[in-house]
Design goal:
alpha+beta; Aminopeptidase; eight-stranded mixed sheet; globular
């Protein structure tokens, strides 16, 4: 797969130099508030994660998220399609905008739009979904702007920071995506 370009962001293969940023972000409580991570991750574990990327299915390897900055690009996070069920033609999305200076600028929405276009236009999936914590209102709004709809709730589906939170399942189908006019 080549680089996927949007208006403000691009999705590209993860490089070794990205790992230092990922390590910092996955150990930042503000960043991991909305992620499944709840324990610190060592630099060695993050390096090991990177070393194993080549073993993954090419379609499920994470992508680095860069934002245009002047004449160049700056890394702000990563994203992925994973858990692809080729028979049902479905997959799950994941995203981490780790650079807090990039929060609230619409980059997450653009990333989800690019990922869904990739899922439907390149991978030929029919359904994509993600899971988001009910308390993560900023992410939920971002996903709704990208066209995903809330389809169900896993009541008290996660325990983090000493309390339970609901997990909201959001999805978009190929026909719904086509209806948004974002195909091309």
């Amino acid at each position: 797969m080549s680089i996927i370009y949007g208006q403000h962001v691009r999705l590209r293969a993860v490089e070794r130099a990205d790992v230092e940023h990922f390590y910092d972000w996955v150990n930042d409580p503000d960043v991991t508030f909305g992620l499944a991570l709840y324990l610190p991750i060592s630099r060695e574990a993050e390096d090991h994660w990177y070393e194993r990327l080549a073993e993954r299915d090419l379609n499920e390897r994470p992508l680095a998220v860069d934002v245009r900055e002047g004449d160049g690009w700056r890394l702000i996070g990563n994203c992925a399609v994973f858990g692809i069920d080729w028979l049902a033609r479905s997959g799950e999305l994941g995203i981490m905008i780790g650079d807090k200076s990039a929060w609230g600028k619409g980059y997450g929405t653009e990333v989800i739009r690019l990922l869904t276009a990739h899922c439907f236009g390149t991978l030929n999936l029919n359904r994509v979904h993600l899971r988001v914590y009910a308390k993560n209102l900023r992410a939920r709004r971002s996903y709704q702007k990208a066209g995903l709809v809330e389809e169900g709730t896993l009541r008290q589906g996660v325990y983090k920071h000493g309390e339970y939170d609901d997990v909201i399942v959001m999805s978009i189908l190929r026909d719904e995506w086509r209806a948004t006019g974002r195909e091309g």
